[in-house]
Design brief:
about 80% helix, mainly alpha
Length: about 150
């Protein structure tokens, strides 16, 4: 529990940094968001973008937690690796989109780094679940049942 709380606190801080970076779009990018892409206006305010990023990452964290609890050990690890590959693909496709789409290219490098940071956080979530071990529950013995019955 302590490790999870620390990890979520780190994700919250990195989401704040990501929100700050996304709010620093170039002047022409901010004008484009105001005039043409109104659905992205929340990214102009750092805490709104950071909160949106954190909620997205929290949903992903809960999805990984559900996978960890419901699937057997080997199956869960395979799904975590597949989701790690999906996060890497999202990072790459975001890079390609920002590099090739002219309107996204105009947003500036800080805005781009804010989005790259979101995908890197998802990669961190995947590594968190891949490299943390499950707690092993020992099977109940006859003496444990007797002790529990006396309590």
């Amino acid at each position: 529990m302590k490790r999870t709380t620390l990890f979520l606190t780190i994700l919250l801080g990195l989401s704040g940094v990501s929100g700050y970076l996304m709010s620093k779009a170039s002047w022409i990018g901010r004008v484009g968001m105001t005039l043409f892409y109104k659905e992205y206006n929340l990214l102009k305010v750092w805490w709104q973008g950071g909160l949106a990023a954190f909620i997205f990452l929290l949903v992903l964290f809960l999805l990984h937690t559900l996978i960890e609890k419901k699937l057997p050990f080997a199956g869960a690890k395979i799904v975590h690796v597949l989701l790690l590959a999906a996060a890497g693909a999202c990072l790459y496709l975001t890079y390609v989109d920002f590099d090739e789409d002219f309107s996204h290219h105009l947003l500036g490098w800080r805005f781009h780094y804010g989005f790259y940071l979101i995908w890197l956080q998802w990669i961190l979530i995947c590594f968190f679940f891949l490299f943390t071990s499950r707690k092993k529950v020992a099977p109940a013995t006859g003496t444990d049942k007797k002790v529990a019955a006396t309590l």
